[in-house]
Design a protein that fits this description.
Layout lengths: L7 H38 L6 E4 L10 E4 L9 E4 L1 H9 L3 E2 L5 H5 L5
Parallel strand pairs: 2-4
Antiparallel strand pairs: 1-2, 1-3
């Protein structure tokens, strides 16, 4: 640095200010590292995505309204992950197959 003050009092003031700034940077680094570690723990603890989803009706006693693959983007917020046999049974009982993800084709279900 070539634009430093020439006298000791101002140099000491600058040193104090830089020390405080460095401590703030270190605190911010620690906070970001904690957030990243929490995010990574959350991703590792996340349950696996189900292979099949039942889209549920408006009330808890209503029948499911559609069957979806586990990665379908068209499924609503009211959904439940189910195993393959439950998805097949729902299709056999007349629950509609999603027209976008086509779970009936992936399950090998032939209507009728």
């Amino acid at each position: 640095m070539h634009d430093l003050p020439p006298d000791l009092p101002r140099l000491r003031t600058l040193e104090t200010w830089l020390t405080l700034q460095l401590e703030q940077v270190r605190q911010q680094i620690a906070a970001v590292e904690r957030r990243e570690a929490e995010k990574q723990r959350g991703q590792q603890a996340r349950p696996p995505q189900p292979d099949w989803l039942l889209e549920l009706g408006l009330n808890r006693d209503a029948s499911p309204v559609a069957v979806h693959t586990g990665d379908c983007h068209m499924v609503g917020k009211r959904r439940r992950g189910v195993p393959r046999d439950v998805a097949l049974r729902a299709l056999a009982e007349g629950v509609e197959a999603c027209g976008h993800c086509r779970p009936d084709a992936e399950l090998g279900y032939i209507d009728g």
